[in-house]
Design brief:
Blueprint lengths: L6 E5 L4 H13 L6 E5 L4 H6 L4 H5 L3 E3 L5 E3 L1 H8 L6 H7 L4 H19 L4
Parallel strand pairs: 1-2
Antiparallel strand pairs: 1-3, 3-4
């Protein structure tokens, strides 16, 4: 079986919860050499060149596939979780038509509250 194409994950490395989730993902995926983790703040110029405001990127996980297609928010989480066997059922659940929009609203509120608390919004 061939190695899956590399995903670039632009995440908030300044967020302790995000760093913990990254470590958990790496542990569950067995290291997943096919995922490159990039801090949003270190790649602000690249994101701007792609039309993404780095401040907005702090508010939503962004994942780029090997074809250069960027997705964000819950779509990014779903793409990432489908790579790990134990997370596939959760990716499926999150993608359900009623679950996804409700979870999306909660996720964006939670991130904005966290960034405000940290003084970064």
């Amino acid at each position: 079986m061939s190695e899956p194409a590399t995903l670039k994950v632009y995440y908030d490395a300044g967020c302790p919860i995000c760093r913990r989730d990254r470590r958990r993902y790496e542990r569950w995926s067995g290291g997943a050499a096919s995922v490159e983790w990039l801090d949003v703040t270190d790649h602000a110029d690249y994101l701007r060149a792609r039309g993404i405001d780095p401040q907005e990127a702090l508010k939503s996980l962004h994942v780029e596939n090997d074809a250069g297609r960027l997705c964000h928010g819950l779509d990014a989480y779903i793409l990432l979780m489908r790579r790990v066997t134990r997370l596939r059922p959760l990716a499926w659940l999150i993608g359900l038509p009623l679950v996804k929009p409700l979870l999306g609203v909660w996720y964006h509120r939670w991130v904005r509250r966290r960034l405000r608390r940290e003084g970064r919004l």
